[in-house]
Fold these 2 entries.
Entry 1:
Amino acid sequence: MKFGHFDDKAREYVIETPHTPYPWINYLGNEEFFALVSNTAGGYAFYKDARLRRLTRYRYNDVPLDANGRHFYIKDGDTVWNPGFKPTRTPLDFYECRHGFGYTKIAGSKNGVRADLLLFVPNGANAEVQVLTLRNDSKKRKKLVLTSFVEWCLWNAQDDCTNFQRNFSTGEVEVLGGAIYHKTEYRERRDHYAFYSVNAKPDGFDTDRETFLGPDAGYDAPRAVLSGKAGNSVADGWSPIASHQLKVELKPGESKSFVFVLGYVEVPEKDKWAKKPERGLLQTNPAMAVVNKAPALALQKRFSTVAKAMREFRALRAFWDAQLSHFSLSGTGDAKLERMALWNQYQCVVTYNFARSASYFESGIGRGIGFRDTSQDMLGVVHQMAPRARARLFDVAATQFPDGSAYHQFQPLTKRGNADIGSNFNDDPLWLVLGVGAYVRETGDAAFLEEMVPFDNSPTDKATLYEHLRRSFHYTVDHLGPHGLPLIGRADWNDCLNLNCFSKDPNDSFQCCTNKDGKNAESVMIAQMFCYVAPDYAALSRLAGREEEAAFAEREAAKMEKAICKAGWDGEWFLRAYDDFGHRIGSKACEDGKIFIETQGFGSMARIGADKGYPIKALDSVKKHLDTPWGIVILDPPYRRYHLELGEVSSYPPGYKENGGVFCHNNPWVIVGEVANGRPQRAWEYYVKIAPAYLEEKSDVHRLEPYVYAQMVAGKAARRHGEAKNSWLTGTAAWNFVALSQWICGVRAEFGGLRAEPRLPAHVKKATIRRDWRGVRYEIRVENRRNDGPVRLEVVSGKATVDGTLVRAARGEKKVVLRAVVG
Ligand code: GLC
Ligand code: GLC
């Protein structure tokens, strides 16, 4: 069952009903001001940091779900409705939500009135712009009352939902003309305020939630809306809100538009205050000084007419079209595949922006940016925005410790490592090598390696970025266990494989609690990762003029491969790990958890033991034991009881999360492994099982957005097999883009050229792949005769050298067209 459709021409996903199985959301903003918006206009806005600088309030896990957002109420006689259906939930005659890149349009109509709402955050503006158009499609004159509504968050979102003894008393506002200003805590230590304005003179307003709602009422039936009479309230503590009320008369066929702006302003200390209160100003306490509104007024002026707002909207669309144009796929005859090529890149940008902070599954008040998470997110965006990837990699490296280990997370606003969670996740250092490798292969920017970067943000302890990578690599070499495999620490990529935890206390965090000295438990996955990144590290060493270190890396990788073949192979597949007692994890000898996906994926990507046929054997075991109609489960059989020696992985019910769910993050490792080992058609079969555009018809079971990946789909052991959770912010986005662009399309940035080795599925006979690389547009016209056959690459136009499947444009060339005949 579907709940909408792709409008490919408009580049939008069109949701046709407000009754989606879960709120289907989108993100606004790509710089410093961000907002989440669901298909019923729910969500919230923040500046830079979803925890520390939250602008509007959101209640999580609420009933009914997703009740907070930007609400527009339309009162037409006795009927009150919202164009986005919520919160009144008045049945609509027509409803549609269009999520596009960086914007959302919601349209609703009722009793002959149509409302069109456009929401976007323009580039270069700290504001959510809302253009609302009301049109009378009936034959009668309409007298409507339009009421807007947002609820302020008192800045720190964590405090806002816990510290009521303080924050019920602190709320302060000002009202002037069409603008409501939220200035709580501005007086003392803040240099910022927010406002909500409309480009018309309102007939009434409210800033006090209780006055607006009335006693006992919810957002579905506010007194100010039902009565059509705003309270003109000025908040004084409690819960400040912002609401405008406008009387709108429409002749048959007539329409009127309004521009609302939810803005954020910072004012330097010396300019904080206005000289005197403006005429007509209302505020919480008249004895108090008045905020300097000049920057807010400038922002309001920028969107003071619909024409101005729409100009900004067109600029935003042009921006996104350019942003997403550096890789594209066309002429395949498979619309779903081309949708994936586009929407997957959009998700990669969102994931880069938000890391794992703010979604409808991440509260925005929890963790900051993960060291390994963001290092992997780089893989999805380096081709689109290399300078931003460079800046982030710098920040990541600056949270590394002098011994090469790293803070597991850091805060985006302060860029400091998060001491609560600390360090000792032994895979972390290697992901940095992977991220920097991807960046340098993309850009050729070897100078980056010579940049000075601090350790643990210390102003005195600095070294070159190359030295950071060296310490990352050596951290693994220097922390090997009894079998010559890397010690796991608190966990590796699988956060829930806590082999040194041994916790019996429900108040312990599985990730932070360590009861063992960590000298025994080893990770086969880290060993494989080490082999996987070693060639990049060796190449980076050579770029940095360190031939000796490059040779060292190659020797160590060969040693590690030997250790894996000796102690990390179970006969039919790769083992997962050794526990603290030296027992095998992920072995046929185990009661549960006999086989894990991670080591089959990384083992086959790194082609460990290729001379012995291990990669193919491992991949065949994946097919046999882990494959399901909904993707590849992370392990099988799931753990049925709690294992003290394994930690969180055995705490989930069978089929969920790391205990046997389909982790969409590591399915692409198997997809890449299949292509790298010569089986592109099988790779494709896996690809379509989790690619959201191909799941659209099964949305009633899958339940989450068909335009983005979710982290997890319930596995075969779960009663709700096929049901997805945790959409949007997941390493799934970047890795599936790697699988699609670099392996299925076969276009990979290498240090010395662009690899073009398309391995498209058999049903795609022809395709055009466009890829910008180091300032040159490469257009590859593919003829796909037999997708596992040899690839012949030839230049059609433009000057370039071709060496097998590696191409490099001549100096000064801007466009190269190639023909690739496969099979
Ligand atoms: C709050 C605090 C309390 C303090 C009082 C006066 O009630 O909980 O500890 O004494 O405020 O500041
Ligand atoms: C989550 C974490 C990621 C981890 C994965 C598997 O997605 O963000 O760091 O690798 O779970 O446990």
Entry 2:
Amino acid sequence: MFDARTACVVVVGAQWGDEGKGKLVDVLAERADMVVRYQGGANAGHTVVTGDTQFILQQIPSGILHPRVTCIVGNGAVLDPEQLFAELAALEAKGIGVQGRLFVSDRAHLVLPYHKLLDAASDRSQKLGTTGRGIGPTYEDKYGRRGIRVGDLRHLECARPVLAERVERANRLLELLGSGERASFEQHLALLEAWAPRLLPLTADTGLLVHRAVREGRRVLLEGAQGALLDVDHGTYPFVTSSNTTAGGAAVGAGIGPTLIHGVLGVVKAYTTRVGNGPLPTEASDPAGLRLRELGGEFGAVTGRPRRCGWFDATVVRYAVRVNGLTGLAVTKLDVLDTFAEIPVGTAYELHGRACEELPSEVGVLDQVRPVYEVLPGWRRPTAAARKLGDLPAEARRYLDRLEELAGVPIRYVSVGTRRDQIIEV
Ligand code: GDP
């Protein structure tokens, strides 16, 4: 993906998240100088396997596993310091140092305990199936212009009265939502006081760092969390996340102009999954759905919740190609399909007997579409050892060719297992 003309590349999920972006970023980071998280928070868990060790990184970019790479939590992300410190400790325990190569934007908003209480209380009434990590309420406060940002830790005396007002407001909201929980001002103040000396040394104007890196010709990866269909504008609203997961959000959330971005890689599974509620047109009925879940280990990295599974949905991916301006695709988890004799692919939708070419904007309508399937022959052979396209069975290559044709952008990578080396560069 990186060449002389593409120094700054965005990696986004092109379905409902969990596509294996963490693994792709880990593979690409080997050639990168900087990796930036630009949206979301500790609600997105990337799982990266190196050797025998598995890392689940929610707050820190997965590029951190490469010792030469500088990692940034950008202004568009929301930061849960407790989670960040826990991940730092886990990395340290495995001998991975971050000194001088991890920076957090002073403009990033802080996730506070009252956000988590509000998240739990609102999900009881709104039933969106959130991860309960306080991300939604933190973004609500950001856009409501009452957030507390990392940079505010520099001026705790000024933050104090603001914090008192925010805690009081949160408690009024909790009461309104029928929650028995209450936030404590003293606890919040003590947390900010404890976080400040640990967080401030990592704090920087990170947009400037990213800008300089791109301008100097360094290779920069902007790492998205979740997926296109969870984007707050372009996703299956209201069953979406609270930020712009699509590539446009990368410029804003990393703090650079869009003209500095040269390429956008969309990560898709060879099939489809989603966690939480909302429509999933190509959801596979059991037992195939259960088989995909078991073989693909489709359980949430953060919550352990089983994911709903279905077949590749070309309408979704074509839409993701458009709203992200994808320049290439990475297809992951091809190996999960190894034992299927036949593999349906959703090529289009029908709505009330008529062709429906584009993804409907309303979930109520998306719920009513019927996928049109094409059934491709399976390969019924393991693919995990393939390292080039020619190593794959002919049926697997045909399957990929068809996905590429339906998506309308070239496949640049195919992943055939969890390990770093289980990747085919096309
Ligand atoms: P992310 O948030 O998009 O990084 O996705 P997750 O980390 O939630 O889920 C991806 C899961 O799939 C992780 O457990 C990965 O180790 C695993 N994974 C990634 N690529 C492959 C692959 O090609 N084959 C298999 N079997 N697993 C993969």
